[in-house]
UniProtKB/TrEMBL annotation:
Domain Winged helix DNA-binding: 15-91
Protein name from the UniProt record: MarR family transcriptional regulator
Record InterPro entries: ArsR-like_HTH, WH-like_DNA-bd_sf, WH_DNA-bd_dom, WH_DNA-bd_sf
CDD domains per the UniProt record, alphabetical: HTH_ARSR
Segments crossing the lipid bilayer: none
Amino acid sequence: MDPVIHAQARLRVVAALSQLGSGDRITFPRLQEILRMTAGNLSVHLRKLEDAGYVEVTKTHRGRTPATLVNLTARGRLAFDEYVHSLRSLITPGDGVR
């Protein structure tokens, strides 16, 4: 299990971002609203995911208004897919183990 993704809050973040199309981004406030997380809590978890190369956080402007956009990187998508595969293998009976 990937310890970066395994933390509940980060798993929620990565799961939400995995629903975006490849290359699509979501605004920080919208992600915060979807996940019902405080800005500080979300920021901390995004930083850990960003440090691992799983998410990209882009600060830009929309007109004169600052905007923070978040997307799942290809590396993050692969890590999430592998995480989900690992979970499924844990809960799926097989190999005669009971």
